[in-house]
Design a protein that fits this description.
4 domains, 4-stranded antiparallel beta sheet, Elongation Factor Tu (Ef-tu), domain 3, 21 strands, 6-stranded antiparallel beta barrel, conserved putative lor/sdh protein from methanococcus maripaludis s2 fold
Length: 511
């Protein structure tokens, strides 16, 4: 909270503001009834002033004003690393087996159809031959003979008996061939239906397999955590965050969290671009770029897996890599060693960036902006500079416990906005996390102003302020001034007034 300058007037001037206002008024009367009418009194100080004084000068310089607030020093960007949900490896394997079985079923149905289609073709040829023979044998009288007598040959005389008997046999052969053709045709129709069903099942199971592979997870129902990090540990790109069944989960850098497994044939996307970029930076895919999963991506993944002691499958299931914006610092670990892996939180992390967070009174939002300088007072009372890097736009009402002790004038329950300050020298802030600190924020500036020490101000009994100027010949005169910006950090105040100029000598409290 900004301190009003009148409250810091010290020594001679503070006494004049309080009990000695009468002295000031008396001095003014002794100079002239109107102290600013031009009268003067030659003296080493204000008349009857028994306190020691010194001399300062009116000068020109730039000033700034600070707001003092309470804040919290720690690490920026808190977040959580979660184990993603996905399809267990055993379920992916089962889906693949189903597709293999379906493929075999389609092949068997195709083979049966081919065999039965061949039989149908032969049956058609046989029927065509029998029909042609019947047409010859049963031509003319033989047709009548074959139709009039059972067995055909018993009613015929002479040579006609042989011809009529052949005709009758041909009729029976054609009838049998026709029945055989119908059976063969029905069998082919059945085979075609079975083949269609087998193909539909294969297509459905291939779709299920595609979904399973896209969501394949790196852990199964009985998988356990075999390695976990220590709180405070910093993990960088290419390093292991934790391990499941001795398989490390590797940190990569990127803004897009993977929502699918990295497999050959996957569609292009930003996640693939991030993967290709990381593999290139880590030295596993020279020249690898773009958002397409290529043969070079598969080769780079295999090299990456081999380097980390993993089976070089060329694919990365969900949970095998984690993408974060940069290096992370572990702040909490949810599971324990040996516990079963489940989808959900594993690690609580922050970035390695040092950041000071302020819950600032929302009424002061207009007083601060990104880029404003700030001075951070650390728990050991040392100071280090910083700059405002973020000013929130959404006001919240904190609970009484969280708002207690916060600066900026926001009492319990007062709306606040989040303001972040980035230290200029992060190393000077140490490694403390969630440590209480104080911050002085520069909220106003004025360039090339006339300034004087704050304690040079005299508060007049009639109101307003004045300076005690020392003129030529040691003559002292009160000069009316208007006050502007206070710079508490250097103890100066901006002043304006007629006849006021740089270089004028004024009285200030002495030691």
């Amino acid at each position: 909270m900004r301190t009003h300058p009148i409250t810091v007037l010290r020594s001679r001037r503070s006494l004049l503001v309080g009990a000695s206002l009468v002295v000031v008024a008396t001095a003014v009367v002794l100079v002239v009834a109107d102290p600013f009418g031009g009268g003067a009194h030659a003296s080493g100080g204000v008349v009857d002033n028994a306190y020691p004084t010194g001399v300062a000068s009116v000068s020109r310089q730039s000033l700034s004003s600070q707001t003092q607030v309470s804040a919290t020093l720690g690490f920026a960007d808190p977040s959580t690393i979660n184990e993603p949900g996905g399809t267990a490896p055993s379920d992916v394997a089962a889906a693949r087996q189903a597709v293999v079985a379906d493929s075999d079923g389609v092949k068997a149905a195709q083979a049966a159809l081919a065999t039965d289609a061949g039989a149908l073709s032969q049956q058609r040829a046989s029927l065509a031959a029998a029909t042609a023979k019947q047409a010859v044998d049963c031509a003319g009288a033989n047709a009548a003979e074959s139709a009039s007598a059972p067995g055909g040959a018993g009613a015929a005389t002479g040579g006609g008996g042989s011809s009529s008997g052949a005709c009758a046999g041909d009729v029976q052969a054609v009838s049998a061939g026709d029945q055989g053709l119908r059976a063969a045709s029905a069998k082919v129709t059945g085979d075609q239906s079975l083949l269609s069903s087998a193909r539909q099942k294969l297509e459905a199971d291939q779709s299920s397999l595609s979904a399973a592979e896209s969501s394949s997870a790196s852990y199964g129902q009985s998988s356990t955590f075999t390695t976990l990090p220590a709180v405070g540990q910093v993990v960088r790109r290419g390093q292991s965050l934790y391990a499941v069944e001795s398989a490390p989960v590797i940190l990569l850098y990127g803004a897009v969290a993977p929502w699918r497994a990295f497999t050959a044939g996957m569609s292009p996307g930003r996640d693939v671009a991030e993967l290709n970029g990381n593999l290139r930076v880590l030295g596993y895919g020279k020249g690898l770029s773009g958002d397409t999963f290529r043969a070079a991506t598969t080769a780079a993944i295999r090299a990456f897996q081999s380097a980390h002691g993993l089976s070089p499958s060329g694919e990365l299931p969900l949970g095998s890599v984690v993408f974060e914006a940069g290096a992370v610092r572990v702040t909490a670990v949810t599971p324990t060693l040996g516990s079963t892996v489940q989808a959900g939180p594993v690690l609580t992390i922050t970035s390695t960036v040092r950041r000071v967070t302020i819950e600032l009174d929302a009424a002061q939002q207009a007083d601060v902006k990104v880029g404003d300088p700030a001075l951070i007072t650390l728990p050991d009372n040392s100071t280090t500079p910083g700059r405002i890097s973020y000013v929130g736009t959404v006001a919240t009402v904190p609970s009484s416990s969280s708002s207690s002790g916060q600066g900026g004038g926001g009492g319990s329950g007062a709306p606040t906005i989040e303001v972040e300050v980035t230290p200029t020298d992060p190393g000077a802030t140490g490694q403390l996390d969630q440590a209480p600190v104080n911050v002085s924020i520069t909220t106003a500036r004025v360039a090339n102003a006339l300034v004087v020490p704050v304690d040079a101000l005299l508060a007049l009994s009639s109101g307003g302020y004045a300076l005690e100027e020392i003129r030529a010949g040691g003559v002292h005169q009160l000069v009316a001034v208007d006050v502007g910006l206070f710079d508490d950090a250097v103890g100066l105040v901006q002043v304006t007034g007629s006849g006021l100029a740089a270089g004028q000598r004024i009285v200030v409290p002495g030691e």
